[in-house]
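Milestone M4 deliverable, item 7.
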Amino acid sequence: MNAPESIDMKPAADGTSRYVVHDEPPGRHLMDGAEQAVRRQRSRRANFIKWLRKVHGWVGLRGAVLGLMFGATGFLLNHRAGPMKVPTGQPQVEELQMAVPDKPFHSPMDMAK
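Output delivered:
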């Protein structure tokens, strides 16, 4: 994995920390610095894994759509003739005849007239 194994926490410029030490109330266990570091590291990895799953899902979904389109067009191209012919409609052919002038054109401006 490309994620670092640990996170180097640098103190703020004014020397204060984000985490403050509290007095431990009776019957309740507070985390020490080592436990906090482990939780931060675990949280960073969990966020990375969540992000990676989302990206993998969206890329996979787009890949599946492209794969289905590729398969459908391949099926239609391979079954144009023979016993498994897929009817796609008849082509429509039209003819148009235009009269050509006897005198040739010498410039594009002549054609516009």
